[in-house]
Amino acid sequence: MSINKLSCFSGEEQDRVYDWLSSRSSLDPSLEDQVRDIIDAVAVRGDDALVDYTSRFDCSFFSTDLLRVTEDRVHGAAESIDPADREVICRAMENIRSFHGHQQRTSWMDTGSKGLITGQLHRPVPSAGLYIPGGSSGDTPLVSSLLMNAIPAQIAGVRRICLVTPPAADGGINVYTLAAADLLGIREIYAVGSAWAVAGLALGTETLPQVDCIAGPGNIYVTLAKKLLHGRVGIDLLAGPSEIAIIADESADPDFLAADLLSQAEHDEQACALLFSSSPDLLARVEKALQEHLESLPRKQTASAALRNWGALISVPDTASGLDLINRIAPEHLELCLQDPWEWLDRVQNAGAVFLGHATPEALGDYFAGPNHVLPTAGGARFASGLSVDSFCKRSNLITATREYMEQNAATISHLARLEGLEAHARSALLRASRKENEGTS
Q1: Is 333 a catalytic residue?
Q2: Which candidate in 267, 333, 335, 362 is catalytic?
Q3: What is the pTM for the complete model shown?
Q4: Is 332 a known active-site residue?
Q5: In what order do the strands lie in the sheet with 127-131?
Q6: Per-residue pLDDT tens for 374-387?
Q7: In the chain, what are the domains?
Q8: Looking at 243, 332, 335, 362, which residue is catalytic?
């Protein structure tokens, strides 16, 4: 096993670590050109393009009639899986629904100024398309991603929710994906994936509906398609390969730390797994534990590559210095594996999700605790938040004034308008104050 070993005892060394991690976001420009070609093909050829791409990459005999998953295949799918499996999905659903229920917002109005009412109208987007990765040609269904995307949309009140997910080689959808959709009450599912699925949802085809918002994680082609189509359709966020940063002291268990680093490394060869500590002994013990855990890991090859590419054991002078660098990196997941993690929480400024204490693995957040696991990556936590009910809502500002209010304030409004050289704006305000024939209206 190979993993990077770095020291951050000076500003120069911190800069080198930051620059190294920033280079992880570099993309081959040709990929964006490929995705743009896919979008153009879907725009021109609609369903035919979806079928061509799906036949090439997912199911060789794919046809138009396989695009829409029939409702009879969804209805009752939950009863076809093992009751124990159904139970754990339901328990996770309960936790996710409970957490996101706290995010609901209501419209509001402020009547504090005489003659003026202002406020905001909170409304859900009318329709949402959820991208659910297939995972190893459908063999590893990402049920958790379906729950994490669909439940906030349902709580937001989105009227039409449809799923897209790539088909397996036999043209079907994994029964656990169908079962989760059944438990959620979602019946509109399309067997199509990658950039062409995103393009289909954004532009609409003969079969796929044109939606108002697209959410859900995916590979680089999915992410680039969302990036290129943003503006024609709303998106949740541009998420890249998974990341975890852990800061630990001598109270931490090396086996716990190794397991948590590998929980991200097994996702993808581009996943990032970082451990910060001021204890050289702990870092050495974690390196040994990583090797031991890797030996029995089914995805050993992927995890080993991720550790070699973007994994690191980082020595820092103290916890405070480590957190300063972590705030600069702004990781997707941050674990505080410290003797008293709550003491350090105020120091955390930039992270998609924070996990406190030795008994709180990142996997708890991925599957069961309730907070959303669709989070900003690649430094995005400096300015963005994870998927939430707000991701499926929009706000409209509300203003109403009486004539008396305009009479009192028209001169000020027109003054500001004329400062900007906008005479029509000024006149629009002044007319409300000068016209007496509509006195008393508002």
Answers
A1: yes
A2: 333
A3: 0.92
A4: yes
A5: 68-69, 189-191, 160-165, 127-131, 213-215, 234-235
A6: 999 999 999 999 99
A7: 4-27+240-385 (3.40.50.1980), 46-115+123-235 (3.40.50.1980), 402-442 (no CATH)
A8: 332
